[in-house]
Amino acid sequence: MSETTQYDFDLFVIGAGSGGVRAARIAAGYGARVGICEESRVGGTCVIRGCVPKKLMVYAAHFAEDFEDARGYGWEVGESRFSWPRLIAAKDAEIDRLNQVYLRLLADAGVTLYQQRGTLAGPHEVQLGSETVSAEHILVATGGRPWVPEIPGAEHAITSDEVFHLDELPARVAIVGGGFIACEFAGIFNGLGSRVTQLYRGDAVLRGFDGDVRRVVGEELRNKGVDLRLESDVERIVKTDDGLRVDLQDGECVVVDEVLYATGRVPNVRGLGLPEVGVEVRADGRVVVDELSCTSVGHIYAVGDVTSRVNLTPVAIYEGHAFADTVFGGRTRPVNHEFVPSAVFSQPPVGTVGYSEEDAIHHVGAVDIFLSEFRPMKHTLSGRNEKMMMKLVVDRESQGVVGVHIVGPDAPEIVQGFAVAVKSGLTKDRFDCTIGIHPTAAEELVTMRTPVRSHG
């Protein structure tokens, strides 16, 4: 670490989400004088208005099916009622607790927190209201924000930032988008009792995921009662006496109580002053960085969704830690973004790591595909007609397993373990010689012997 003392801080972090907080704590642990600012609540998108509250709501939405499934196992469940205000209050209490945990982590690490917006006032200066502080190194970790297209009536729609704070459960909701956020909230609202219409301009949900994952999730959304309309786009939103009328480009319309736009997120860089100090920013807002998270200005770094490399909370945390180790810990730690596992908490959920079948053909050449679709054991007695899908993508030449894709109960939990195998480069024979745990769904991944198709 530099001995320079002409600055107020050795490191100043703009944005106190998961990546920024991790970087600040680790740098402070190395002895750096660290400041951090946050214009919202400490904890970032994931903790405050993203994955954590969303998964709590996914749990809540599952109970409707659990009550129904119980009958197949001999239980008689009485009349049940759902209270949206009680769920939101319980969710808010947990978010408050986590926010306090993050505040305590920063305080315990000796990091100075400024609870206000910060912008770059110069190459080494951050403007905080009427105060300006200086830092030898600056880390930008401002994350992303929801993007809504500019259509007539867009002001009547909400995004994932507002959906967690609705006063009441909407009886009818239109969800615009086909990505993981859209599919997750389609399952949440459908499970809680709303009538859900999901509108997506593409020909299958979850663009960028494996084709079989996309197919199965789309089928299951419909099986569970979501009115999924593909190749459908919104022309305008009109407020009426009966709610919100969503006019579609094909001439049809849908009348609902809420319109949730989940059409993607963009880097949160507006007004930060990055170009003014020489930091290269792409037209889409993405801050350009190298493998050490360094921008085009040598002492300014960026991690997390603001760089749009792999927009996942654990990735931002990893990048923040690696940055602190590199700049303040004396050991260079480039970040490898290959084979990062991910999950979609749709209903049923998705767990995936590695290449999709479509991408593997271009990245590794000849591949063999192992695929199994079956009814999960739980539903042999519940009677529910729900499908589970498991898939392996294998590099034919090296026999390395380069892709694992699962749709079904506990898919994210299963994939987390198999991600270690894929990241470690294990071959198909290592899968084959591993004895499965019976009866589980996961054993299917070590018992598939014959490819269903091959490419190349």
Descriptive overview:
This protein has helices at residues 18-29, 44-49, 51-70, 84-109, 180-192, 211-223, 313-328, 357-363, 379-382, 411-423, 428-432; strands at residues 9-14, 34-37, 112-114, 119-122, 125-128, 131-140, 144-146, 172-176, 195-200, 227-230, 234-240, 243-248, 253-256, 258-261, 265-267, 300-302, 342-344, 350-354, 367-374, 388-395, 401-407, 453-455. With 456 residues, it is an alpha/beta fold. The protein has three domains: 9-145 and 266-328, FAD/NAD(P)-binding domain (3-Layer(bba) Sandwich); 154-263, FAD/NAD(P)-binding domain (3-Layer(bba) Sandwich), CATH 3.50.50.60; 348-455, FAD/NAD-linked reductase, C-terminal dimerisation domain (Enolase-like, domain 1, 2-Layer Sandwich), CATH 3.30.390. Strands 1, 2, 3, 4, 5, 6 and 16 form a seven-stranded mixed β-sheet that branches. Strands 17-18-21-20-19-22 form a six-stranded antiparallel β-sheet, with helices on both faces. Strands 10-9-8-14 form a four-stranded parallel β-sheet, covered by helices on one side. The longest helix is centred in the first third of the chain and has 26 residues, at 84-109. The model has no long low-confidence stretch (mean pLDDT 96).
